[in-house]
Amino acid sequence: MTRWMLPLLLLTTSLHPAGAAPSADDGLMVDSIDTSVDPCKDFYHFACNGWLKANPVPADQSAWDIGSVLVEHNNDRLRAILDHAAETPTPETQRIGDYWSACMDEAAIDKRGIGVLRPELDAIDAITDKTDLATELGHLHRIGIDALFSFGVQQDYRNATESILTLDQGGLGLPDRSYYEKTDKDSLDIRSQYEAHLARIAVLAGADPEQAKLDAARLLKIELVLAKASLSDEERVDPKATYHRLKRPVLDKLAPDFDWDAYLKSVKSPPLDVANIAVPRFVEAVQTLVSGSPLDEMKAYLRLKLIEHAAEMLPAPLVQEDFDFYGRTLGGAKQIKPRWKRCVANADRDIGEAIGQLYVKEVFGSQSRDAITQMVGRIRTAFADDLKTIPWMGTETRARALKKLDAMVNKIGYPDKWRDYSGLEIKRDDALGNMFRSDSFELDRQFGKIGKPVDRGEWLMTPSTVNAYYDDQRNDINFPAGTLQKPYFDLAWDDAINYGSIGSTIGHEMTHGFDNAGRMFDAAGDLKNWWTAKDAKNFETRAACLVSEYSGFEAAPGVNLNGEVTLGENTADNGGTRLAYTAFETAIAGKHIGQIDGYTPEQRFFLAYAQSWCENQSETAARLQAQTDPHSTAEFRVNGVVRNMTEFREAFACHEGETLAPTKICKVW
């Protein structure tokens, strides 16, 4: 179970807008500060208004934030690496050059047409019984199709040294269960547009309009059954809700009409003696569909799931239709991003560490790694000091918390051991096949973990990624090289800027180990209760304050944040920023630092934190984020944090009772 720090860009990536660069070499965007706004009432807009006005959302985006320029900068670097590999291949770069060439050759993709998918469609059409259905589903899972359920590998929640096969809910085309349940006008409209979109892609793939309309209705009928059986986002917050280590006979009992032997053989699974059946009731829904749905309905569902997944490597009309629904209707973007950016994203997804080896040589030196390591050390010390003195935690729980913090591993920049792609076949003239084979390669890599000790050095993000994460079961914090650059970090910046920006990110990830989900895992990464009943109650009381507080924030007209779903991220935002501030005070202790850019070091810390979240977002994207994303929207990642910090009100002379200096504050860590 992992938690990400920076929200991934919604559905689309980026273009360079005018005026996006910081306005000062010292890292503070002075021109972004709007002194007409009272910082004690709305610090986010005080810190970000200038940037927001200068950086409208580009046409191919649903959101544009302060990190988007860095994402684009990294994309440019990756494109240069891929171009060079395609034009001047070596034995080491042939694979990435061929992948890039195939993906970029739109003319060849258009010329092949839908025929490139015909063998897969024919295989679905050839299904005649339930055994065929299970066999075909196993094959589709191997090539990355999210249909009926998900099947893969995870660390065992109760024994983090081992990996276990896992079967979980899946197979939905809309973002989550709520999109199928709600009956308000907007939700009904989205489902109607989704059904119309499905019919259009079926026609583009060769179906006649009447058949396409029928198949779209069939898919939606099946997905409604799957959605009803799925756990909600609120339910999945608790890791115990998705852990049921069961033996194979239980699986057969839950869905006796599904041919598990045929499926497991086709998906090429290791022997399944035990598995984590994450949501048993979901498997019962699979049984309902397999036993009660005509084969023609199931085949229609599989056909459309295949076409949806393959669309990005099919002719232009299918690519555009896929964007029109997911990018425009759901995401709020106005136009599709250029082909090269889509291919960079695909290459990073499928062969990211092969490209990453070349990327880190260009962007990440040992000095940066050393500086970040020093910051992590100071923030860890701040957390340890907090745990030693926190008044609501008893001696027994305190000792275990300190043990967990001490065991937490720092992973900075890139892996010590790079992933081996030598078994992955990439062809210079087969974009769709490369995508399918990459999915199969990755599934086999995951299956290969069964029966072996967990590789705690593995990374779940590529080196160029602009993001960071904490892994509950590896108990490690991970900061890719792609993030450790301007506008989040620079060796030349003063401590206030670096600790306010990247320091808060470091503190955020560290705090995830002790949020509402992370606290359920012990120092070794096992799902194990190490809290006394009294201390657990104290934690829950403090967490409830954050739930109530953030549930009151309106992210889009008529749509509030979900304080239950966002609790983990809000806990990490609040706790992580406090830790970074404490570490910052340690870093400047004994130094006589005056104002810079007209602001004290303490004010610069909070300005750097706020400016690291400046973001413009379409209303559509804000609604989507509020309904599906565990991260709060940017405004409340800032205002929701500073209103709970007395250090902020002291820095900006806010009086108690003002909007961002409430009498009651929420504090877990």
Write the layout of secondary structure elements.
Blueprint: E1 2-4, H1 43-54, E2 63-65, H2 68-87, H3 94-104, H4 106-112, H5 118-125, H6 130-142, E3 150-156, E4 159-168, H7 178-181, H8 185-204, H9 209-229, H10 233-236, E5 245-247, H11 248-254, H12 260-267, E6 274-277, H13 280-292, H14 295-310, H15 316-330, H16 339-363, H17 366-389, H18 395-407, E7 409-413, H19 431-447, E8 469-471, E9 476-480, H20 495-512, H21 533-551, E10 554-556, E11 559-560, H22 567-588, H23 601-611, E12 615-617, H24 619-628, H25 634-642, H26 646-651
Parallel strand pairs: 4-6, 7-9
Antiparallel strand pairs: 1-8, 2-12, 3-4, 5-6, 8-9, 10-11
Helix pairs in contact: 2-3, 2-16, 3-16, 5-14, 6-12, 6-14, 8-9, 8-15, 9-13, 9-14, 17-18, 17-20, 17-22, 20-22, 20-23, 22-25
Protein described:
- The protein has helices spanning 43-54, 68-87, 94-104, 106-112, 118-125, 130-142, 178-181, 185-204, 209-229, 233-236, 248-254, 260-267, 280-292, 295-310, 316-330, 339-363, 366-389, 395-407, 431-447, 495-512, 533-551, 567-588, 601-611, 619-628, 634-642, 646-651; strands at residues 2-4, 63-65, 150-156, 159-168, 245-247, 274-277, 409-413, 469-471, 476-480, 554-556, 559-560, 615-617.
- The protein has 669 residues and is an alpha+beta fold.
- The model is unreliable at 3-24 (pLDDT under 50).
- Among the domains are: 1-7 and 365-412 and 487-669, Collagenase (Catalytic Domain), CATH 3.40.390; 111-336, Neutral endopeptidase, domain 2 (Orthogonal Bundle), CATH 1.10.1380.10.
- It is built from 26 helices and twelve strands.
- β10 and β11 form a beta hairpin.
- The protein has a four-stranded mixed sheet, covered by helices on one side. Strands 3-4-6-5 form a four-stranded mixed sheet.
